Amino acid sequence: MSLLRIYGQLSDQPQHCQWALISDIGEPVTGEGQLTDLPQRVGRVQLVIPAAQVLITRARVPHGARRNAGSVLAFAVEEKTAGEPDANQVSWLGAIGDEDVLAVVDKAGLERWQHSLGAIGIRIDEVHCETLMLPVCEGEWSIAWNGSDGLVRTGEFEGAATDCGDRESPPFSLRLMLEEAQIRSAGPTSIALYTTTPNAAPDIAAWQRELGIELRTAGIWDWRTAPPDAGINLVQQRKRWRIFPGMAIRLRAAAWILGAALALHAIALVTGWTLLASEQRTLRQQMEARFRAAFPEAVAVVDPVLQMRRKLAEARHAAGQSDSGDFLPMIEQVALAAKESPVGAVRTVSYEGGRMTLELSTNDEAVRRIVARLIQSGLSVEMLKDTSAASSKVPARAANAKAVLIVRAS
Predict the structure, then answer these.
(1) Taking residues 148-157, what's their average pLDDT?
(2) Which of 22, 90, 278, 379 has CA atoms 20 to 30 A from the CA of 261?
(3) What is the DSSP string of 316-355?
(4) E-only strand ranges, 250-396
(5) pLDDT value for 246
(6) Residue 3 included in any domain
């Protein structure tokens, strides 16, 4: 996967930049020019910020705020930046002992680069500090020197830009950093010296005398040729989904199979509903036909089941027989259902037009047992526990009832 590395000065307007295109094969391709001249359609984009424009410092922040590059981290370094917290983009890099290492960059400058690159179709995936791309070994510091100034990396998460020096004298800031580290008993055993331009190598012996520490030459270093995974991303962004080459072709067959399965399922579902609706219409037609055969004088058939039940009740009453919806058969079933309940469980019973209302005053288990027995006997039961909702259906004295049952013949 190709990597486009862009070297951007946050203090300048994003119009001109240096860049390097790194691929899996071949040497990196480097260039310099306008943003519109940058390579397009790359797999990964890194914005490299110069060491002098990134402040790496230590602070103590709440554990929950470490992954949040927001106001909490910005306020943690407010005294060291001497500026408005909202003006800085602060990122948590890692922890050293009890202290946290934070990276501070100019938020407005970073946003200008993001917007300018976004306008030409380039989205920044990672933001790196030049300092943390420099190689470093445990117990050793690394310095990149161009002949007059440079940058130094003092650990996995720490480093800084140096001030000026010359071939005979190392930068004064490097001496101060060594003194401070030696006070904390965290000084290096040696310093690896990288050069970034030809003929930039200093007098090693003179530097060693000034610094009081061993220096070794480590070769040439350039941010353009640093490994793709060098450094630490300063801005944790949500990763974009990437489709690997050829993946769409591989998924095409699976997509066709899934689509066919969904289509067959939809057809089966529609067919099933159609058959059920047809059976329902057939059963209703059969019930209407039987009802008209039994009662040819009926003018209209709206609900053949209900109308058949009513006609059957009328026929029984005309023959002097009781129906299941009459008071006596219903009260008999209620008595059988409540025979094991304590005395006074059934407080009131009222009956009107085939509907019997029972007011019960007993525990929930007894109520459920009565309801189950009534349903088993072939009656329809509706239970109301909210007596206010049942007050219009039962006498006023039932206002304190615990449960009200509406019983009808099925």
Answers:
(1) 93
(2) 278
(3) HHHTT---TTSHHHHHHHHHHHTTTSPTTSEEEEEEETTE
(4) 346-352, 355-360, 379-384
(5) 62
(6) yes
